[in-house]
Specification:
By secondary structure, the protein is of the alpha/beta class. It has helices at 11-17, 31-46, 61-66, 93-105, 108-124; strands at 4-5, 20-26, 51-56, 74-79, 82-88.
């Protein structure tokens, strides 16, 4: 599958209609981004069942800002509409392959349960209340 160019117009639809989306935040002037591009493209060819997408941070500044992208390239993985990975830096091919395998192996029911528990714990802590 060819790499999908994400924009603010198609981002939500792409993430909601696909269960596994890898997103490369990049810019044309960024040398590490350009060096990572063929590694990312090769991974997309090796994993045709996954959606590989790119966000040009220059053209899509609102998206980059919404995800607090401060360093590029940044790779994000979204599974079942949950961001499970986000890290700046170009990955070598072996590391990207391993990361995809780890992301595939995640039990998303377990991930959602953990997120819910963390949100419940955060909501239970009332701000401004001194610890006993």
């Amino acid at each position: 599958m060819a790499t999908v160019e994400l924009t603010k117009e198609n981002f939500d639809r792409t993430v909601s209609e696909n269960s596994f989306v890898l997103i490369d935040f990049w810019a044309g002037w960024c040398r590490p981004c350009l060096q990572f591009a063929p590694v990312y493209e090769k991974a997309s060819e090796a994993n045709p069942d996954l959606v590989f997408a790119k966000v040009d941070t220059e053209a899509q500044q609102e998206l980059a800002s919404a995800f607090q992208i401060s360093s590029i390239p940044t790779l994000m993985i979204v599974r079942d509409q949950v961001a499970i990975f986000s890290q700046p830096g170009a990955l070598p091919e072996a590391a990207l392959t391993d990361l995809i395998a780890q992301a595939r192996a995640l039990d998303m029911d377990e991930v959602r349960t953990k997120i819910a528990a963390e949100q419940d714990a955060a909501a239970a802590e009332e701000p401004g209340t001194p610890d006993a």
